[in-house]
Request: fold
Amino acid sequence: MAQCLKRMIGELFSLGGRGFSPGAEQVNEWALAPEESFCIPPQAVQTVYLRSIKSLFFSRSVLTFAWLFLLLCTAPSALAWGCKGHQTVALIAERNLTPETRQFLDKLLTDNPPDPQLKRYCGSTHDLLADASTWPDDVRSDLKNGPWHYVNIPRGTPHGLIDSYCGNQGCVTKAIADQLAILKDKSADPHKRADAIRYIVHFVGDLHMPLHAITNNDEGGNCVPVRYFRRRPHEHHNSYTPNLHALWDTAIIERDMEGADPSEYADTLLQNFFAEIESWQHAGVHVDDWAWESYGIANTIVYPELAPPVPTQTPAPVHSCTDDNNIGERMLRLHIFAGEHYRQIAAPIVEERLAQAGVRLALILNAAAKPTD
Reply:
């Protein structure tokens, strides 16, 4: 939040100092950047935000502008699929639950709601499962369980055991197994079981996002600056926007939704993949295989289809975009571009991964809700 505020106020003052008043195109670029870029507010206030920021820019009300950003710039980073994507996965799953499973989940979630004081980045929704789907990103910083959201398989790695890439702090495949065990344990604390539902709904979505199952020394694509259509990448405090991760979790999916809300989009995907759903259901639950699917997509499509293709890096420990001989700066110098050609390749993959995640999540939840002997 502080970095976001510092950048925007700094840019405002610097523009004013040069006697320049930002035009509508500049304001729109800042206000409508992808959610991960630096400071997109929750979707519930996005319309008010855009109108307000334009008014504030043109009225040059710097103090009010600063207050607005202090209020709204609380976006967490690296959210697989973003708000709408996770909610879509949950709603697809919901449409494939048995009545017994729906009753089981609804009771646990209703009786054990999230902390009402918790700031919900995506806002709250009336649908319990859709609301649950975004909660883990709201608590990941406080609980310091970020590694639960992904598994870092080095690019170029041959198929093998996922466990070898699951660090000491855990990974998404282990987190799904651990939370599933809590959910199935009737003697476990009810609140922990409700949280387990929230984690499972979210993590199955995360697992199907290709850049949550691979590393190219680039923080899951966050250190890969990309020019997306007309938007050129910007660097701020060693982070970049737009970046490859933001394209896949937010920009591509929201362009594909064409203004639909998650419920409508979920119905569209279920219709589009109607012929494939039965085969996904018959295949059963194979969490490690799903991770390798995501890895394969990232390794063979996400990186190679960019212009120019991103080269495979020699594996190295990376904790920021300045590591590995400044991986972010090296990627920036490649002048990577993704436009309509890339979008046409990526959008059908995004659609399929969201649909698969929802159908497979329903398999997990239906099995968990079955009474045990």
Summary: Confidence is low (pLDDT under 50) at residues 1-77. The radius of gyration is 21 Å. Residues 2-72 form one domain. The chain is about 55% helix and 5% strand.
